[in-house]
Specification:
Layout: E1 2-4, E2 18-21, E3 28-30, E4 41-49, E5 52-60
């Protein structure tokens, strides 16, 4: 999976960290193990090339 994470969406995306798509679907938030989080997909950033983040979907939340 490839996604563009702009600096206005994630201030400093980090390789190895997991993120969830925000409710407005244009922002990405750092994933926490909060059970109240109702986000469909959690992605882990594998590498960053310029503005493009190469991600792996690590889990789908119910």
């Amino acid at each position: 999976m490839t996604t563009q994470i702009g600096t206005h969406q994630v201030e400093e995306p980090e390789v190895g960290k997991e993120y969830v798509r925000g409710l407005d679907s244009n922002t990405w938030l750092l994933f926490t193990e909060d059970p109240a989080e109702d986000r469909p997909v959690v992605v882990r950033i594998d590498r960053i090339e310029g503005d493009v983040c190469h991600c792996t979907v690590t889990r789908k939340l119910s």
